[in-house]
Amino acid sequence: MFFDCLALGIGLFASVMSKWPSNQKYSYGYNRIETVAAFFNGIFLVLISGSIVIEAIQRLVHPPEMSTDRLLLVSFVGLIVNLVGIFAFNHGHAHGHSHGHSHGHSHDHDHHHGHSANMQGVFLHIMADTLGSAGVIVSTLLIQWFGWTGFDPIASLFIAVLIVMSVIPLIRQSASVLMLQLEDTTVNQVEGTLDQVKQLEGVESVDVCRFWPNEAESVVGSIHVFVREGTLSQDIRRAVTELFMRHVDGLKEICVQVESSQSTRLTKQPTMDYYPQQNHSRSTVLPQPTFVSTSTQASPALPPKSLKKKD
């Protein structure tokens, strides 16, 4: 019961904290805290399942004396309480989800994955309790009918396996978001758009292109473009921004940095990364990039012939 209350408390705190506004320290806000809570609850359930397995094996090897006089009544009451909890949880979650869509669709779209993962982690804790109560009822009836106490640890093993199988997808999904993993569809869109950027007149090369998820439905990116001498940087920046905003689904913000190839000679092949680089050289001063988000509509890309300076 203590562990269940702890899991519910973590889920509730994460749900409230995710709505805190962004600040200078957390510029993207606190949305990802729900994904962290979901990952923690998933690992927590795996550890609980492991302890159940160890205890069940010990009880199979050394069967304890069991009294089933009041066990059936207590477990039945516990099952009813857990079923009421599941019904209340599903009703409240469905109501909150529809309410969020009707009053703030765009925010809910960016926030959807973390919220769903957090609620899934809480739901799995309630479901584990429900399975435990059902397992106790079944094992108690079998013990009363056949007189073998081994049915109880066998039921515990079965429940532990079900819990682990249910929680593994949650752990994998939450871990992929925390590790800033892009979906294959987004990767293909970025690569296709990058090929179009390289074909723009005036673009000589692309040094680094990085994209990562702010949340599962929201993508942030940056790109460093080198242009030939005499090319208007502002036109290239506008064209690159328009291409990525048009072809990459869920792209929320992109930072486009344009630099003349005459000022910096490339000594390596252009690379493309799908994660933000953590260590930046402090000794290199680059031109000021332009930061564009979907809140500001990008200007249409100019045709290739207009990307050259006019004499």
UniProtKB/TrEMBL annotation:
Q: Which residues cross the membrane?
A: 37-58, 70-89, 122-142, 154-171
Q: Name one GO molecular function term.
A: zinc ion transmembrane transporter activity
User: Signal peptide span per the entry?
Assistant: none
User: Domain of life here?
Assistant: Eukaryota
Instruction: Give the GO cellular component terms, alphabetically.
Output: cytoplasmic vesicle; Golgi apparatus; membrane
> Keywords for this entry?
Ion transport, Membrane, Transmembrane, Transmembrane helix, Transport
Instruction: Name the membrane topology term.
Output: Multi-pass membrane protein
Q: Which GO terms describe its biological process?
A: intracellular zinc ion homeostasis; zinc ion import into Golgi lumen
Bias class Polar residues marks the residues at: 266-297
Region (Disordered): which ranges? 266-311
**Pfam hit, one:** Cation_efflux
Location in the cell reads:
Membrane
Q: Where is the Cation efflux protein transmembrane domain?
A: 1-179
Instruction: Give the family this protein belongs to, as stated in its UniProt record.
Output: Belongs to the cation diffusion facilitator (CDF) transporter (TC 2.A.4) family. SLC30A subfamily.
UniProt-recorded name of the protein: Putative zinc transporter msc2
Q: Which organism is it from?
A: Rhizopus stolonifer (Rhizopus nigricans)
